[in-house]
Design brief:
The protein is α/β, with parallel strands linked by helices. It has 9 helices and 15 strands. The chain has helices at 47-51, 127-139, 156-167, 180-188, 202-209, 223-232, 261-265, 282-295, 311-319, and strands at residues 3-7, 20-24, 34-43, 72-79, 89-92, 99-103, 108-109, 147-150, 172-177, 193-196, 214-219, 233-241, 269-272, 302-306, 326-330. The strands form 3 sheets. Strands 3, 4, 5, 6, 7, 14 and 15 form a 7-stranded mixed sheet that branches. The longest helix has 14 residues, at 282-295. The protein starts with a strand and ends in a 6-residue tail after the last strand.
Length: 336
Amino acid sequence: MPRQIVLASRPSGWPTAANFRLTETGRPGLADGQVRVRNLFMSVDPYMRGRMNDVKSYVPAFRLGEPLEGGAIGTVIESRSPGLAEGDVVLHNLGWRDEAVLPGRLAQRVTPAEGLSLSAYLGVLGMPALTAYVGLLDIAGLRPGDAVFVSGAAGAVGSVVGQIAKLKGASRVIGSAGSAEKVGWLREIGFDAAFNYKAGPVLSQLREAAPDGIDVYFDNVGADHLEAALVMLNTHGRVAMCGAIAHYNATELPAGPRNLSLVITKRLTLRGFIIVDHQDRTAAMAADVGRWLAEGNLAHTETVIDGLEQAPEAFISLLRGANMGKMIVRLLTGRL
């Protein structure tokens, strides 16, 4: 029988395995227009933590006792949708389960890219790459010659941000990450400088890495990273506020940066964004990123965890920074 992961309880602070439950479900017949998809890979992403809280946000909260949702890619095994046939590879948002039944209009057919795993459509050719592309080019307005700082730079989004910045003419790209291994990888893929934020104060390490200041900060972390970036931003600097993972598991409201007055004196621009508002940029991203991948100018990596039953642990590990590149769950197929 197909299996799914449901939200058993809402986390308070850091999620634990007890907040999730693996259950079996039936295999309902298809209504007109629907397809049944056997999922091959699913994504776990930081934004999912917010959906586990029962609060109003830009997307509805996950419901207790019901399967979680998120990006997934798989093959159509049954179709009553005129636009999709058995064997088609599709991208959709009903992850956290072996099989998904959904309207065909909500499944995006994709053509497998030569030399890439299908999981790439959940990472370097998917939502994380679109987030990096839009955040850097549209929200932060990267200009040739800019010095760029990326926090959480060894993740699925940050690693692409830094590489696009170099490809688009940034003068210097600096990244922060949580281990010496990640710092080494960032240097391998073209970052001019990188530092381990656990090895010392962020501000002192950023000041050493960017002696002439920075013009753009791509924020995935918030907290001390944002505070340090405000110090190091040059006049008229820009911040793309993508995420604040340092706060996602806080049980009390965190203190804001103590130096927000610098936004005024330096005439800075801080702009938040949600990628669902920018789907019109998907084609441009896919064309550019696809070309850079084919030319060997953009590197990517994945941390792959096997088995639907391991999805909760993969998610918790993601929040603790255990991944390098995109965190992917490879689903075990062939169950009856």
